[in-house]
Amino acid sequence: MIFPMKHFARRSLRHFLADTHGLGAVEFALIFPLMLVLYFGAFEITQMLTADRRTTSVAYTAADLVAQAASISNGEMNDVFAASSAIMKPFSTDGLSIRITSVVANAAGVNKVAWSDGHKIAPRSVGSNFDLPAGLTTPGTSVIVAEVFYTYTSPISSAVTKSINFKEVSYLKPRRANSIPRTN
Question: What band does 40 get if pLDDT is binned at 50, 70 and 90?
Answer without folding.
Answer: confident
